[in-house]
């Protein structure tokens, strides 16, 4: 019946029935295919346990045990998720690695294998080196500030039990606010003509500063904004770790004469290492993938080679979708992936060695 339905719903039949264009008919056919597949999957998932319960052969009963039926039921439900993950994640990653060895252009569909030529050209590209350097500086500054301030706030909020939920909510608000409006607000704050920051500095006789223009401070201005947005997320994670530390450890250390700094350094911090590792990995990945705030706050002016806030993801986007150099952009994406993977492994190894 399923095969018959698929053959009945051909594009010509749909076109004649609905009076729509052939391309739209093909799209409609795909929707029907998906709907029928999902429907049949649910029918099979519901009917298999019923069929098994009425099947009386001893050998089949021994094979289709309750545990095995549960296993089949669970993995049948997870199958669509695995399929989506493969289509949206695994295949693009493999395709990106493959394209990095080709001279591929969206305008010209013919791809030519060139080996490691894209990688060789990358390190001779001044824009790529500038973007990589800026991204590394941005990531280092953002991780240090957001992790340090987040941990300090978590320690303070953890000691303030009365208003703790209020402070957690206030500090977490920037995290749930979309990046684009936050970037626009901070761009107004940094504005040299009517920005709030320059207005406050004018009280002390300081002339207006172009915070997003000057090479020495443009990138750090965005680092401060990005760290401010991540602090609340880090604080909440650190609070979870702090509240899971048994009070007996603190009391025993205090009885041995440990002060507040000793308690933090030798009791609290070692017990927070798993949370600290998680926070650092998440912040590192997020910082190396920076794009939105830099693009919005600099009005897309990263195209100049001397621009102090040109970052790696913008360089990838520009080569891929402005110059249509898909092979070159894929090589940049692979380099970014390897950098993040290497830093993550180093962080795991460092934490593991400290625990030993």
Automatic annotation (TrEMBL):
KW Membrane (keyword) present: yes
Compartment list: Cell membrane
Organism: candidate division KSB3 bacterium
Membrane topology: Multi-pass membrane protein
Domain ABC transmembrane type-1 intervals: 132-347
Gene Ontology terms describing biological process: transmembrane transport
The protein, known as: Sugar ABC transporter permease
Pfam families: BPD_transp_1
UniProt keywords, alphabetically: Cell membrane, Membrane, Transmembrane, Transmembrane helix, Transport
Residues annotated as transmembrane: 72-94, 137-157, 169-189, 217-242, 263-285, 326-346
UniProt keyword Membrane, yes or no: yes
Family listed: Belongs to the binding-protein-dependent transport system permease family.
UniProt xrefs under PROSITE patterns: ABC_TM1
Cellular component, GO annotation: plasma membrane
